[in-house]
Amino acid sequence: MNKILKKQAVQLMNCLFFIFLCGNCLAQKAYPEIRVSYISELQKGIQDSHWILDSDLVSSPGMIPFGNGNYTDSLINHLDTIQPADWRTPKGNYPVFLAIWGNDTLSYARLPDTRFYYRNDNKQKKKIRVLEVESQLPPYTRFAADVEGLSEKKISALTDSMKRMKSPQDTLMNCPQACFFYALDAFFRTHGICPDPVITRNTNFSKKEELAAFFEHFLKHTADYPCHYKKVKDVSFPDNSVIVIVNGYNEIIHAVFYHDGLFHTKNGLLSPFVYSTIRPILKGYGSKDNPGKDLSKTGKLMLGQTLKVYTLNDSLYHLHQ
Fold this sequence. Notes:
single chain, alpha+beta, 7-stranded antiparallel beta sheet, 4-stranded antiparallel beta sheet, 27% helix, 30% strand
């Protein structure tokens, strides 16, 4: 009898242990690890970008807000219409919208507040479904969690939790906004012009060839300079202006916001950087200052040849002086 009871007790313990393990598995599925999206890539990119880490670097403060939030005009007031495009982005399948004025158009894609994507898991040798959610709390950091195998009910509850998460930083560090929209966003908000919904932290241009017409119409082209630090180091750029770098094929390749004596620049994969001079920016994008000595003629033409300076087109906007 004792042997039978002992055997039953062992079986019961094994059963309880199995239930405990299953409970842990379920708990792990129910509560996946939530992490800040992009942040590790950002930090690695900052460390690996030798031309960015320069003595002229003032700071990398993240997406600091420009302007005081008091708008006296809006970009949308000067558009004929905004309509959805009949195509989506090839990568990510994001919706595209068309901002139309006269005979010109600016196509822009919008990153949804909540999205799903797949990442490669080398250990499991398969793709894992990932949920990414933008927090509704300032500074609106995006968080990500693996949701492979979770029910839609659990994903919905997880989404609600992620929308209320606090950021580990005071400023937004993981915004994928590219240089052109970053500079324009800062420019318009500083001048008291609301650029929403066209230019926001979650939108980016869809066709680069449309940017020149936008700059020429909504800003005022005031000056051109050689894209060479030796020739522009003593130039006094207008405050609150956008400096655009144009290559030898007359293509816009980069944009910088100049504010209070500092140059604010951003690459789409990194957080913004603030420089005391334009030298490191021209070192990265200019044909004369770029350290690449073995570039072909075509390669040099792909780099910056001209700096175009844009200020506010004050005849277009209704601003309170």
